[in-house]
Amino acid sequence: MQRLTNRQILLGITGGIAAYKSAELTRLLKGAGADVQIVMTPAATEFITPLTMQALSGNPVHLHLLDPEAEAGMGHIELAKWADMVLIAPASADFMARMDSGQGNDLLTTLCLATEAPIVLAPAMNQAMWRDQQTQKNAASLQAKGVRLLGPGVGEQACGDTGPGRMLEPLDIAEQTAALFDRGLLSGKQVFITAGPTREALDPVRYISNHSSGKMGYALAEAAVDAGALVTLISGPVNLPAPTRCKRIMVQSAEDMLEASLQNIDQCDIFIASAAVADYRPVSVAEHKMKKGNEEIMELHLVKNPDIVATVAAQQNKPYTVGFAAETRDVVSYAQGKLERKNLDLIIANDVSRSDIGFNSDDNAVTVVSHQEVKQLPLSSKRQLASKLIEIIAAAEQKGDN
Ligand code: PMT
After folding, report:
1. For the chain, which domains are there?
2. Could you identify the atom of ligand 1 that is nearest to the CA of residue 310?
3. Is the CB of residue 321 less than 8 Å from the CB of residue 340?
4. Which one is predicted more confidently, 176 or 235?
5. Closest by Cα among 159, 143, 274 to 151
6. Does residue 213 line the site of ligand 1, with CB under 6 A?
7. What is the pLDDT of residues 9-50, one digit of tens each?
8. Is the CB of residue 151 below 6 angstroms from any atom belonging to ligand 1?
9. Atom of ligand 1 nearest to the CA of 322
10. Cβ(335) to ligand 1 under 6 A?
11. pTM over 0.85
């Protein structure tokens, strides 16, 4: 499980011999799924080169506050907003003093002033410097402001002294960093979501489809990303931008959607089928545009499409599988029938006879039907509803409910 999937970590490196450990730390954070941007103070570049850090992070290293070229790319305020966490390792005594006094005399201190993300420091310095009264005051003051300190560790130091002040080992810092994010309900889980309509071609210019806008599925994808999941959104044709930090696969027909859904299905922990998939498709697709004839009635021959969610639920190691039910009457009993028939763990039913909810509206009201209970979620925006649904699905998956 990649515990830092979707996380954006700004790693600050200050001047100290422990800066060499930041290379390994970067590798571990990246390996756990994080996107890492590096900011180095001038002193840090004396201990480890920006080139090394660039190669390991896969991103250009940020060095100067007043650099027009850098500001034209990702400026200091953008970086401050980009970060889900600012992790400074090693944090020197000088840096802690400057940060505590609210200075903004280099890129890293300025970022700390500007960011709303949590700030975490891994102090590293000589044991006498750590014990120094002023350093202790600065450390206590930073903690009182909500800055979290990891370490320092105790032991032999590069200068030959023994005592407190060693930077924690990179693995320890990476694990503690991941633990700080672990509140994400779906941390590191792989979630596949189908969304939108399918289009079943009749000829090169015509198709059979429905009114699904994709809003429900896209809101679910965003909520799952916010909960820490690695999301694959398998989307029919819609007019919505791809949610950030999520992999989107665009498809047209039910058969395409099935193929995309089964790709890597063995890695999927939770499958959510919110797409409105056409139940039938034309038996054949005309090669050229069909011409209007003399007949008043035209007959179309349709063949059943594969059932995507039922196929997923029939896999040997099936993911926790959630369906949607679009109903116009007897909503709960029809949903219960689909729950059983398709071997689902949970089904979310909505009444699509109403124009204010369901297809193509901004709001929805649903009934969550499991094998144990039936729960109504009242009218709210699809966005709010999606967060609530993700909470319910995450809790049920964790409990192993079906
Ligand atoms: O996209 P929006 O405009 O935001 O609208 C949201 C929605 C109304 C489309 C959504 O909330 C919803 O109800 N989606 C399911 C629509 C549907 O096709 O329901 P169904 O009762 O026909 O299908 C039951 C389940 O089987 C669904 O999870 C569906 O994705 C799945 N299915 C159906 C047929 C098929 N061939 N393969 C499937 O996987």
Report:
1. 2-179 (3.40.50.1950), 190-288+296-399 (3.40.50.10300)
2. 39
3. no
4. 235
5. 143
6. yes
7. 999 999 999 999 999 999 999 999 999 999 999 999 999 999
8. no
9. 28
10. no
11. no
